[in-house]
Amino acid sequence: MEAVERSSVALKDNMNRDDLIKKMNEASSVVLREKGYISFVDILISIGKLSQEDYEAWRFRKVPSLESVIRVNLPRINLMLRTLHQNAKKGGLRASTSAYVSWGKRPRVPLSFGKSGDPHIEEAYSTHFLKPYREDTILTSD
What we know:
By secondary structure, this protein is mostly helical. It has one domain (2-134). The protein contains six helices and three strands, in the order ααβαααβαβ. It has helices spanning 2-11, 17-35, 40-46, 52-59, 74-90, 119-126; strands at residues 37-39, 94-97, 127-130. The protein has a three-stranded antiparallel β-sheet with strand order 1-3-2. The longest helix has 19 residues, at 17-35. The radius of gyration is 16 Å and the shape is globular. The model is unreliable at 1-12 (pLDDT under 50).
């Protein structure tokens, strides 16, 4: 029952594509400034398309995939992921794949982002974008 309600929330999302991307870009700037990196999960939470409660349910393996609780339909998620990756590349950010594993007392296992399990989708979700190295902060062995 709960999954059906979440699906209808995603379908009722009235935000058009341009507004969604604008909101995502604004959130990306804030997250990068605050954390020094951008993750797609942080963006989704920041723009209200993923609740903290649903995120934690996923981390504790109470839901099968992150996509099952995101409040945006799959074509828009795909658009958002592509846009984030393109903008990060244009902005000179460094891509770094992060491992997302379950929380809790049970053995830690890798979590699934996508409903399909496609490795390319999993990698797109798990990629974080970091500020580039600054030459004046790199330690040398002189």
